[in-house]
Amino acid sequence: MTAALHPPASACPACDAAPAALAAAEAGRPSPGEILLSLPTIHCAACIAKIERGLGARSDVRAARVNLTLKRATIDADPEVSAEDMIAAVEALGFEAHELDAAALVATATDRAGRDLLMRLAVAGFASMNVMLLSVAVWSGAADATRDLFHWISAAIALPAIAFSGQPFFRNAWGALRAGRLNMDVPITLAILLALVTSLWETALSGHHAYFDAALTLVFFLLAGRYLDHRTRSIARSAAEELTALETPRAWRIERDGERQVAVAELRPGDLIRVRPGGRMPVDGEIAEGVSELDRSLLTGETLPVFAGPGQAVSAGEMNLTGPLTVRATAVGRDSSLHRMADLVAVAEAGRGNYTSLADRAAKLYAPGVHILSALAFVGWYLYTFDIRTALNIAAAVLIITCPCALGLAVPAVTTAASGRLFRRGMLIKSATALERLAEVDTVVFDKTGTLTTGAPVLENLHDLDDEAAAVALALAMGSSHPLSRALVQAAQAAGVRPARVSDIEEAPGYGARGRWNGREVRLGRASWTGAEPLAQTATYLKLGEGDTRALRFADALREGAEEAVGALIASGREVYLLSGDGAPAVEAMAARLGIARWMAEALPEDKASRIAALRDEGRRVLMVGDGLNDTAALAAAHVSISPASALDAARVASDMVLLGSDLRVLAEATTIAQSARRRIAENFRIATLYNVLAVPLAVAGFATPLIAALAMSTSSIIVSLNALRLRGGQA
Amino acid sequence: MNILTYLIPVSLFLGGIGLVGFIYTVRSNQYDDPEGDSRRILSDEWDDNPKP
């Protein structure tokens, strides 16, 4: 919208100095001098070179760098250059460009935590390889002084390496112990520390067995699991952030010396804001001037546009359709209705908060079991031999053998593979446990407007009109940018209708369009304005003469793949509900069309959330798919939730997964992938358990050598990872 | 076996060079755009002096 208001920079370099452009540049840049653009269409070496050369040639650009992986450009430009100028420049080179709000991308800019984990992983990998080589010499028969020397060198490598690499585990374990809980990291930390202490002791007494290699390999494998986990989540986070960053929140504030573009965060109650047709209300307020129609579908689910005139209250998120409006802000930012919805979300979320992931459930069984087992081994051997050294050695061996190396990899490896596969299909998984929860779903609740439908109307009854009426309607609609008019034009042109000769066409904002045809006044617009009987569904009315009116009915276009997705979900035995804020006739028609037996119309946000809560109390696992503000509480209350990328930011934040494409078919596929991912996780747990069952008796009986520990640990980890990788391929 | 006193430090030193090199590449953001970097080498624009 704003791009059209600025003259393109390439056509008019002097405009850069114009006050309006200057103001826009100041307001729209969180970090001065840096402009971030999203370039969704770049794909090759030539694209990079073309954009970088094209931008670099401009005198007002200091540096431009394209990142092909993220499909982004970072531009360092003079302070007076605005993002719009840069977008125009990139578009002139033949590429699509959108501005990204740098403030919303903070976490992706420098992924410190990921880098930190990678560094620790590298150190652990380096150290474990070296110690492993030294250990191979010991296993193959190095004796006496050579063995002691190798053990001491191993200790010299292992101690600092573990002190550095093991920190994430030590910190987590300490945190859990301080809170009086046990988690996976407690047995890990205990195993590592006990292994180091006994190994040092053994080395000092020139004993045979030292577990330096085992302790390091353990740290390495577990860090690999952590890193995978972190990467999966940071990819999802950065993609979710990018969606937010694409919606740079701006508003045009009316000031004494004219209009100025400012960030929405700077608005105060009492400010006068200009909202152009096609723009969204940035704040809650009251219309001060202007007449128009409002599309409230994202807030309420209603598809019928409502009339808007001076004095009427508007809420943030509503779309202005026809005429320019001046709005006096009454509530901004945190106080606006968009944010008040957050309270409802918080209440709804409280019901879901008690989900324990599979890994946590495993850890709850596992951690105490391991400690008891190793303590028993220690006590038993001590009572049998009265030798602390032997007893401690065996206790350490038990801890190392049982250490959840495979368990630590079992879940992250599977979720990484599954999320990677879903990401390629256009599904973004934001929450770590969302996949597990999705696999349990037995009830699916859909929102209608914007979720099952695209939110764009389609003309239903063109064939009911005679050629003359269709021609007049087309002529009147062609001059308007109202969504109904655009749908009418599209349908009429597709049917080969030619516009009639209508003169003096003018648009009456908020009402419709009128003109003169064959000496008569003809009108296309609201029922009251054309003198027609209003229908219950979305419609516009054509008036050809006094008392001669026709209704043009519109239906919401179904989203691509919606029928298949609903059909597949029903076929898989899940119950499907349709909850909508729209009127009953439209909802019933949609439910009938998709074969959904249970539906509810005119649902308020509280109704939706309480319906979901009722289903939950019946013991059902509900998947909620919705996009609007009226869905956010329901999204948060459901067992797992999905929203399309076109949803309001609030809805995307409340949901666990985001659908990046427009096709809904991936929904059914996602549930299948989630189920097979859950199966793989369970399989991996079984593999890990089986290996423990085989190896633990050896350890308790005192037969475990460092060689057996190393072999068992590596094989189980590799088997678990390979099993997880099966998910990446074709078969689900 | 006295050769070990040279060989072990030498091997550790060589491995350490690799580790330090890796940490240097991580710290200097060389993994930010793997896809772009693999294409950039095809262009001869920055052959003489690398892009800052």
UniProtKB/TrEMBL annotation, chain A:
It is a multi-pass membrane protein. It holds the Pfam family Hydrolase. GO terms for molecular function: ATP binding; ATP hydrolysis activity; copper ion binding; P-type divalent copper transporter activity. The chain crosses the membrane at residues 121-143, 149-170, 182-204, 210-228, 365-384, 390-418, 688-713. It is found in: Cell membrane. Residues 33-98 form the HMA domain. It is an enzyme of class 3 (hydrolase). Its EC number is 3.6.3.3. InterPro entries: ATPase_P-typ_cyto_dom_N, ATPase_P-typ_P_site, ATPase_P-typ_TM_dom_sf, ATPase_P-typ_transduc_dom_A_sf, ATPase_P-type_domA, HAD-like_sf, HAD_sf, Heavy-metal-associated_CS. GO terms for cellular component: plasma membrane. Signal peptide: none annotated. SUPFAM superfamilies: Calcium ATPase, transduction domain A, Calcium ATPase, transmembrane domain M, HAD-like, HMA, heavy metal-associated domain. It comes from the Bacteria. GO terms for biological process: copper ion homeostasis. Keywords: ATP-binding, Cell membrane, Hydrolase, Ion transport, Magnesium, Membrane, Metal-binding, Nucleotide-binding, Phosphoprotein, Translocase, Transmembrane, Transmembrane helix, Transport. Belongs to the cation transport ATPase (P-type) (TC 3.A.3) family. Type IB subfamily. NCBIfam families: ATPase-IB1_Cu (TIGR01511), ATPase-IB2_Cd (TIGR01512), ATPase-IB_hvy (TIGR01525), ATPase_P-type (TIGR01494). This is Cadmium-translocating P-type ATPase. It comes from Roseovarius spongiae. The gene is cadA.
From TrEMBL, chain B:
The chain crosses the membrane at residues 6-26. Residues 36-52 have a biased composition (Basic and acidic residues). Residues 31-52 are annotated as: Disordered. Keywords: Membrane, Transmembrane, Transmembrane helix. It comes from the Bacteria. PANTHER family: FIXS PROTEIN. This is Cbb3-type cytochrome oxidase assembly protein CcoS. The lineage of its organism: Bacteria, Pseudomonadati, Pseudomonadota, Alphaproteobacteria, Rhodobacterales. The gene is ccoS.
